[in-house]
Design brief:
Shape: globular
Strand content: 15-25%
Main location: membrane
Subcellular location: Cell membrane
Largest sheet: 6 strands, mixed, barrel
Number of strands: 25
Pfam family, one: MacB_PCD
Number of helices: 27
Helix content: 40-55%
Family: Belongs to the ABC-4 integral membrane protein family.
GO molecular function: transmembrane transporter activity
Length: about 900
C-alpha cells in the first residue's frame, strides 16, 4: 500500500473499518465454504476487534492517525468547556494580535528591505557630533557639492546616490489656482539604474538627465501615485506639472514596488537632483547620501576616506564663517562621518519611533507572558479535574509522550484559534497606530503588507505561545500516578506551587506594564500642560505664498481685508507660525565677537503680539514704519542670555550671519518667554523682528511667503476655511493659500509621539491588569473548591469570617507581594533605557511607584472577593454529610 493511500485512510476511518470488517467476513465465509466449522474458523482468525486494530494500524500512518484522534478529542474537550475556552482564546488573541501589530510596524520601518538591487549592501552616510546646545546628535543631511566630492572619492569602492528628504509641496497640472499637495523627492540620475529598477510606463531618468543644474526638467511618477491620481492612464506621459515655480515634463512611471527611500513616506513624484534650486549651494544640506558598497570592500577604510573628504569640504567652508564663534566652529568640525546600514531605507520616522516601538514591543511581550501564564494556570486547574482520565489512559498502556501530545494538541488548537482572531485584530490595529503617528493633515504613509514575513512570524509566535502555556500542564498531566489518581488522591503541592509561582510572575510583569504606562501618561500630561506663553485657542493660520513677492503694504492690505470677515477679531502676519520652524543666527553685543549661544528669530507684523495674546513687559509694539534690520522685541531669556538681566530697552545687538554680515537691531520691547519651535526643547533666546525687511542696500525686500494669523470668536476657526480661501483669491490672485490649520493643531502635534505612547501603554496596561485579575480569581476559585471540606469543618468549629478570608488569601497574598517586589526591581532596572522618552517625569518619584502598586492591590482585592464570599457561604452540614 502506498504512502499516499495510508495518509488518505487516516481521514476515512469509518469507511476503512467497514472495509476491514467486510474483508474479515469474506475470509470467514471462504473458510466455512471450504467445510471448516464456523467456531473453529473464528478461533483460527482470532478476536475480530484485535484483527481490526492490527489491520487498521497497517493501513494508516500511525502518528498521523493518532494526531487526528487527538484533534477530534481536543475539539470535544474545548466544546465541553465553552466559557473557559472562550476566555483563553480571547486573552491570547489580544496578546498575539498586539505582538503581531508591533512586529508589522517594526518590520515595515526597520526590517523590510527596500525593493532595490543590492539592498543588503546599501548604507547611509551621516555625521555625528554636538548640536548648538552641545547635545550629541546624528546629522544625515549633505550639501550637493559635498556629495559630489564624496561620490568621486568613493569611486571604485562604492556608488553614491543622492536622495533628498521627501517633502510635501504644492503642485498644479493646469494654470491658475488648481493647486494640490504632493510628495516630491529629488534623486541622482544614476539612482534608478543602480537600484536595478525598470519603468512601468515611459522611461526613468538617467545620469545624462542629471548633469547640468536646471537643464532637464523631467518628472517620474511613482506607480502608487499614478494609480491613485490618474487611474493608470497612459496618457499622462508628456503632461506638465508645475512645482515650485518650475514646469516639469512627465517622462515615465516608476516600478510597482518602489515608493522612495524613506519608510513612512510614499513619494508621488521623482525629480532629477540637478533640478533642485539649491543644487550648487554649499550651505544647504538638503539631501541624504546613500552608498552601495562593492562586494569585498572593507567599511572602515572607506568610512575613514570619506570622513577625510567631508572634513576637508567643511573646513574650507568654515573659513568663511566669520559670523560664528570659534567654539561653535570647533564643535561643527568635530562631527565624524558614519556609515549606517540602510537596507530598509532611512527616514526621520525611523529616528523618532525606534525607541518607542522597542518599548511597545517590550510591553506587548509582557502582556503575552501574562496571558500565557494565565492560560497555563487554567490548563493546570483543568488537568486536576482530568486526573482520573489520564490515570486510566496510563493504566491501559498509553505512554508519557502520547499523553503530552494529547494535551499539547488541545492547547495548540486554542493557540491557533487565538492566532486567527489575533490576525484580525492586527489587521485593524497596525493601520490604526500608523494613522496616529503624524499630524492628520500629513499622516505617515507606511506600507503594511500581509505577506510571508508576517505569516512566518505569526506561525512562530503561535508555536511559542503553545509551548509557553501548554508544555508545563502537558508534562504534569503525563506524570500522573495511576494508583493514586484512581484511588481518588492527588499530588497537589507541586501543582499549587507552580500555580502560585505563575501568579507571582503575572503580578511582576503587570506591575512593570502599569509602571511604564504611568510614566508615558505622565510624560504626555506634562508635555501637554507646558506653558506656551501665548493663547493657542481660536487662532487660525493661513500659510500663504506669492510667486514673485508682494510689498509689505500689500500684505497689510490683505490682512485688513481678512479682518472684515464676520467672526474675525484680530489679524496679523508672521514669517511662520510658532512651533512650526526656526531661524537662528549668532549674536553680538557692543560689537563684541559672536557669542557661542545662538539667537532665534521670528518676523512679525504690528499687532501680532496682541493677536497671540502676548503682553509687553516693557517698551512698545512695532509700528508700520519699523523694519529689520532696525528694531526688535526680545523675550526674557534673550535678556538674561545677552544682556545679563539688565534693562535692554534702547540697547542694541547685532545678528551676525555665517558670512560675517552684521544686522543692527535696537531693542524696543520685552515680552515673556514663549514656546518657539519645539516643546521638548528648553526656552530659547528669541528676538521678534518686523515683517518689513530691508536688503543690504536698504531697499524693501518683498516677502514671497508669510502666515496670516486670524483670531476668531463665536465659531470654530476652521469653519471659515472656504470663505477665507475664496476671499484671498478674489482680492489678489497672486496670493495662494498653501496650508490652513489652527495654532492648537501645531501645539497638539508637538505631543503626537507621547500621546500615542500613552494611549497604547494604557491599553496594554488595562489588558495586563484584567488578565492578572482573572488569573488571581481563577487560582483562588480553584483553591476554594479544593478546600471546601476543610473550610466547612473550620466553620463548624466556629471559625470567624476573617480567619476564613485569611485562610483563602494567605498564600496568594504572598505571591502578590513577591510579584510586586520583583516588578519594582525590574521597573527600576529598566528606567535608564526609557529615559529619553520621558519629559518632566522622575521615574523614581514615590507617586510613580505607588500608583501601580495601589492599582494592583485594588485589583487583587476585587479578584479575591468572590472567592472569600464563596468560602463564607459554604454549608458545614452539607460538607460533613459528604464526608
Amino acid at each position: 500500500m502506498s504512502l499516499w493511500q495510508r495518509v488518505e485512510n487516516v481521514f476515512r476511518r469509518e469507511r476503512l473499518i467497514r472495509e476491514i470488517d467486510e474483508e474479515f467476513e469474506s475470509h470467514l465465509e471462504a473458510a466455512m465454504a471450504a467445510g471448516e466449522d464456523p467456531r473453529e474458523a473464528r478461533r483460527t482468525f482470532g478476536p475480530q476487534l484485535r484483527l481490526r486494530e492490527q489491520s487498521h494500524d497497517q493501513r494508516v500512518v500511525a502518528w498521523l492517525d493518532a494526531l487526528r484522534a487527538d484533534v477530534v478529542f481536543g475539539w470535544r474537550q474545548l466544546l465541553k468547556r465553552k466559557i473557559a475556552t472562550t476566555a483563553a482564546i480571547l486573552s491570547l488573541a489580544l496578546a498575539i494580535g498586539a505582538c503581531t501589530s508591533v512586529f508589522r510596524l517594526i518590520d515595515a520601518l526597520f526590517l523590510r528591505p527596500l525593493p532595490v538591487a543590492h539592498a543588503e549592501r546599501l548604507y547611509a552616510l551621516a555625521r555625528q557630533g554636538p548640536d548648538d546646545l552641545g547635545v550629541l546628535r546624528i546629522f544625515d543631511g549633505f550639501a550637493h557639492p559635498n556629495f559630489t566630492r564624496l561620490r568621486a572619492a568613493a569611486k571604485g569602492q562604492a556608488e553614491l546616490v543622492a536622495a533628498s528628504f521627501i517633502h510635501r509641496t504644492d503642485l498644479t497640472y493646469a494654470t491658475g489656482n488648481e493647486m494640490e499637495k504632493g510628495y516630491v523627492q529629488f534623486l541622482s540620475g544614476t539612482a534608478f539604474p543602480l537600484f536595478g529598477l525598470q519603468p512601468s510606463l515611459g522611461r526613468l531618468f538617467t545620469a545624462e538627465d542629471d548633469g547640468t543644474p536646471g537643464a532637464h526638467p523631467y518628472a517620474v511618477l511613482s506607480y502608487n501615485y499614478w494609480s491613485r491620481r490618474f487611474a493608470n492612464d497612459p496618457g499622462v506621459l508628456g503632461r506638465s506639472v508645475h512645482i515650485g515655480g518650475k514646469v516639469f515634463q512627465i517622462i515615465g512611471v516608476g516600478p510597482v514596488s518602489f515608493t522612495g527611500t524613506e519608510p513612512g513616506n510614499i513619494t508621488d513624484i521623482f525629480l532629477p537632483a540637478s533640478m533642485n534650486p539649491d543644487v550648487v549651494r554649499e550651505d544647504n544640506r538638503w539631501l541624504r547620501a546613500l552608498a552601495i558598497v562593492q562586494p569585498g570592500v572593507s567599511l572602515e577604510p572607506l568610512r575613514a576616506r570619506l570622513d577625510a573628504v567631508s572634513l576637508q569640504f567643511e573646513t574650507e567652508r568654515a573659513k568663511g564663517f566669520a559670523g560664528m564663534s570659534p567654539h561653535n566652529i570647533e564643535m561643527f568640525l568635530q562631527r565624524k562621518l558614519l556609515l549606517q546600514p540602510a537596507a530598509a531605507g532611512i527616514s526621520r520616522l525611523q529616528d523618532d519611533y525606534r525607541r518607542p516601538l522597542v518599548w511597545l514591543g517590550v510591553l506587548v511581550a509582557l502582556v503575552l507572558l501574562i496571558a500565557c501564564f494565565n492560560v497555563a494556570n487554567l490548563m493546570t486547574a483543568q488537568a486536576a479535574s482530568r486526573a482520573r482520565e489520564m490515570a486510566l489512559r496510563v493504566s491501559i498502556g498509553a505512554g508519557r509522550a502520547r499523553l503530552v501530545q494529547l494535551v499539547l494538541v488541545e492547547n495548540a488548537m486554542l493557540a491557533l484559534f487565538a492566532a486567527a482572531l489575533g490576525a484580525l485584530f492586527s489587521s485593524w490595529a497596525a493601520p490604526f497606530v500608523v494613522s496616529h503617528i503624524n499630524p492628520p493633515g500629513n499622516p505617515a504613509r507606511l506600507l503594511l503588507p500581509g505577506d510571508w514575513r508576517i505569516f512566518v512570524f505569526g506561525a512562530l509566535l503561535t508555536l511559542v505561545v503553545t509551548l509557553l502555556f501548554g508544555l508545563s500542564p502537558a508534562l504534569r498531566a503525563s506524570a500522573i500516578q495511576p494508583v493514586t489518581a484512581l484511588r481518588g488522591g492527588e499530588e497537589p503541592h507541586a501543582r499549587q506551587r507552580s500555580m502560585y509561582a505563575l501568579i507571582a510572575a503575572q503580578v511582576a510583569f503587570c506591575f512593570v506594564v502599569l509602571f511604564f504606562a504611568g510614566l508615558f501618561v505622565a510624560t504626555f500630561r506634562h508635555l501637554s500642560n507646558q506653558p506656551l506663553g501665548f493663547d493657542a485657542g481660536n487662532l487660525l493660520l493661513l500659510e500663504t505664498y506669492t510667486p514673485h513677492g508682494q510689498s509689505p503694504q500689500a500684505w497689510s492690505q490683505m490682512a485688513e481685508t481678512l479682518r472684515t470677515v464676520p467672526g474675525v477679531t484680530d489679524v496679523a502676519i508672521a514669517g511662520w507660525p510658532l512651533l512650526s520652524g526656526g531661524w537662528a543666527g549668532s549674536i553680538s553685543v557692543n560689537a563684541a565677537p559672536p557669542t557661542d549661544t545662538l539667537g532665534w528669530f521670528v518676523t512679525i507684523s504690528p499687532g501680532w503680539l496682541g493677536a497671540m495674546r502676548m503682553h509687553l513687559l516693557a517698551g512698545r509694539d512695532f509700528h508700520a514704519s519699523d523694519s529689520f534690520p532696525g528694531q526688535a522685541i526680545v523675550n526674557q531669556t534673550f535678556v538674561r542670555t545677552f544682556f545679563h538681566g539688565a534693562d535692554p530697552i534702547g540697547r542694541t545687538f547685532e545678528k551676525v550671519n555665517p558670512a560675517g554680515r552684521r544686522q543692527l537691531c535696537q531693542v524696543i520691547g520685552v515680552v515673556p518667554d514663549a514656546a518657539y519651535s519645539n516643546l521638548h526643547d528648553p526656552i530659547r533666546p528669541v528676538a521678534y523682528v518686523p515683517f518689513r525687511q530691508l536688503d543690504e542696500k536698504g531697499a524693501i525686500n518683498p516677502p514671497e511667503g508669510g502666515t496670516f494669523l486670524l483670531r476668531t470668536v463665536g465659531l470654530p476657526p476652521l469653519s471659515l476655511s472656504t470663505t477665507l480661501r475664496r476671499l484671498i483669491a478674489q482680492t489678489n490672485p497672486a496670493y495662494r493659500v498653501t496650508n490652513l490649520q489652527t495654532e492648537q493643531e501645531l501645539v497638539d502635534n508637538q505631543a503626537i509621539r507621547e500621546r500615542l505612547l500613552a494611549l497604547l501603554a494604557m491599553f496594554f496596561a488595562t489588558i495586563a491588569l484584567l488578565l492578572a485579575a482573572i488569573g488571581l480569581y481563577g487560582v483562588l476559585h480553584y483553591s476554594v473548591l479544593r478546600r471546601e471540606r476543610e473550610i466547612g469543618i473550620r466553620l463548624s468549629l466556629g471559625a470567624s469570617l476573617g480567619s476564613i478570608a485569611r485562610l483563602v488569601t494567605a498564600r496568594i497574598s504572598k505571591s502578590v507581594f513577591a510579584g510586586a517586589a520583583a516588578g519594582i526591581t525590574l521597573g527600576m532596572a529598566s528606567v535608564r533605557y526609557v529615559q529619553t522618552l520621558l519629559f518632566g517625569v522622575k521615574a523614581t518619584a514615590p507617586e510613580m511607584l505607588l500608583a501601580p502598586a495601589l492599582v494592583l492591590l485594588i485589583a487583587a482585592l476585587l479578584a479575591a472577593l468572590p472567592a472569600v464570599l464563596r468560602a463564607a457561604r459554604i454549608d458545614p452540614t452539607t460538607m460533613l454529610r459528604a464526608e
